[in-house]
Amino acid sequence: MNPRSLLALLLLSALVLAASRAPADSKLTPRQQYTALEQEYDSARNKYFQDYGNASEKEREKLTYPSPEQFSDRFLALAKAHPEDPAALDALIWVATNCRQNKSQDGSLDLLMSKYLTSPALTNVSFALVYSDSPKAEEFLRALLKASPHHAVKGLAAYSLGRYLLGKDRGRAEAEKLFEEVAASGADLPAYRGTYADLAKGELFEMQHLGIGQVAPEIVGKNVDGKETKLSDYRGKVVVIDFWGDW
Amino acid sequence: MYPHERSLVKRLEGKPFALLGVNSDAKERLKQAMKKEQITWHSWWDGGDTGGPIATKWNVHGWPTIYVLDHKGVIRAKGPREEALAQVVDNLLKEMAQSAKP
């Protein structure tokens, strides 16, 4: 081997070594680490959807959706390692909103409560807790409602706490009070359907008119051919109403 | 849901019973689904998406959502599916038959 090719070989090995070490480079900023983690999860999820689309019905049964819980420890570790970096807050929000029914969600809520309750970025965390079974979710929503100076954060915390309580079959009176507050103050908070004031009014309507033992409200509407019918046309029959979609 | 609903409707043919849908699909999709899944029962078409007027008024957040009413129009159950739904309906039909006896 002549000296020139030896040099080339050495250079090449150095490059290969550097490349193989790149993913574990601890010099990535917390923000870069956060982005990399998020991308890793997103691409795992995209791969799942792609595989699902290409798979036969039998193969589909073997595919598993990449659970956010598999990533939660790394997001939490990032937040704990860099508590002063804004990426820490995003990492905690990621865990709180993506990981349901899981102790890592509780862990993220504890850290959010210890440091970030006045952040305006917590708006959407509340809604992710509506169906939670964890008492930590209730503790967090109450703390947020008390401490946040932000209208939107408070509005969603109040609505979500109401839904959380109703889902547990308790705190009806408190839930009603929370929904009344949001119905009065949440008309400027856009929701997935109308505004949070609309959603809160929907909850109040359900509590007041759609309970077991109450006469069902009238439905007037058209079928797919434009023919109009009413729910009361079916009085005298046992009726099942099925809100459905073909998805 | 479809096979259970089809068999429920078929089994209770001629009984004082109605399955009524409130559908949140686009119109064409609803037409196709009714044909493909042999949906013979009535569905209101709720405007083409999940923000339709009926689903909004009834505060529906998840699909399917089920309500069961007795023959007087009183809400008697929320949420039962499949076997549990058939059981609730059978009980209400029995109750109705008994209340009609002199």
SSE arrangement:
The complex is a heterodimer of chains A (247) and B (102).
Chain A lengths: L2 H19 L8 H25 L2 H6 L6 H13 L4 H13 L4 H13 L7 H5 L7 H13 L3 H17 L4 H14 L10 H14 L10 E3 L5 E3 L7 E7 L3
Antiparallel strand pairs in A: 1-2
Helix pairs in contact in A: 2-4, 4-5, 4-6, 5-6, 6-8, 8-9, 9-10, 9-11, 10-11
Chain B lengths: L1 H10 L5 E7 L3 H10 L5 E4 L7 H5 L7 E5 L5 E4 L3 H19 L2
The amount of helix of chain B comes to 40-55%
Helix and strand composition category of chain A: mainly alpha
Strand percent estimate of chain A: 5-15%
- Report the CATH topology name of chain B: Glutaredoxin
Number of helices of chain A: 11
Tell me the number of strands of chain B. 4
CATH architecture grouping of chain B = 3-Layer(aba) Sandwich
Instruction: Please identify the top-level CATH class of chain B.
Output: Alpha Beta
Overall structural class of chain B, as computed from helix and strand content, comes to: alpha+beta
Strand order of the largest sheet of chain A: 1-2
- Please give the radius of gyration of chain B in angstroms: 15 Å
What this model shows, in words?
The complex is a heterodimer of chains A (247) and B (102). Chain A is 62% helix and 5% strand. Chain A has helices spanning 3-21, 30-54, 57-62, 69-81, 86-98, 103-115, 123-127, 135-147, 151-167, 172-185, 196-209; strands at residues 220-222, 228-230, 238-244. A two-stranded antiparallel ribbon of chain A has the order 1-2. Chain A is globular. Chain B is an alpha+beta fold and 102 residues long. Chain B has helices at 2-11, 27-36, 53-57, 82-100, and strands at residues 17-23, 42-45, 65-69, 75-78. The chains are: A mainly alpha (247), B alpha+beta (102). At the A-B interface, helix 11 and strand 3 of A face strand 1, helix 2, strand 2, helix 3 and strand 3 of B. Strand 3 of chain A pairs parallel with strand 1 (17-23) of chain B, so a sheet runs across the interface.
